[in-house]
Amino acid sequence: MQDTLVIIPTYNEKENIEKIIRATFSQKKAFDILIVDDSSPDGTARIVKELQKEFPKSLCLQVRKEKNGLGAAYIHGFKWALKKGYDYIIEMDADFSHNPEDLERLYEACAIEGADLSIGSRYSKGVNVVNWPMKRVLLSYFASRYVKIVTGIPIHDTTAGFVCYKRRVLETIKLDKIRFVGYAFQIEMKYKAWKHGFTLKEVSVIFTDRTEGESKMSKTIITEAIFGIISMRLKGLPK
């Protein structure tokens, strides 16, 4: 068992799953991987089970019975990671929008540079996004600016989903009280960590939109992020 677990949530990612697993295991630093699959009808979990024969100690799989949001999948993974005793837990997408070569940089920001939570940031040094339509770039960028203004959180990419947590952050945040499931889940986790006094550090990365499989983005997720944050800020969130 390694000290760091990479959690990859999946739903219909058969085109990407083997490639992202192999790319993660090919890094200089050794990582364990947990795939949290929401019962993908395309057979994603079957592919992972076959790969477990090759990586029996470092590749794990949890299959959830229902698809009820990215946030719920990550919380399932977080609880599993804490139970297993990992010191560092990293969120990463399956579609190569997050580059596995950046995993070690996120890890080092926490393990060596002292951050409690490190964020693979698209916007800390300009706008580092590839293959997105301009409309989507602007929506994402200004959504993060909006969240920063409304909440006061001192980071540029509040909706980023490429994140490394020290275990004490996840132990401190009451995971069962996380309210949001989409983009706002990522914001809520960072906001609560910051409110608890943990140190957040942005690591500049290049985000590349998926080339295979289908995007999971929806208007509902975006609406939750925009209007949910107002509610979060005005009403306050339980820690």
Automatic annotation (TrEMBL):
It comes from the Bacteria. Residues 6-173 form the Glycosyltransferase 2-like domain. InterPro entries: DPM1-like, Glyco_trans_2-like, Nucleotide-diphossugar_trans. Keywords: Glycosyltransferase, Transferase. It holds the Pfam family Glycos_transf_2. Gene3D superfamilies: Spore Coat Polysaccharide Biosynthesis Protein SpsA, Chain A. Belongs to the glycosyltransferase 2 family. This is Polyprenol monophosphomannose synthase.
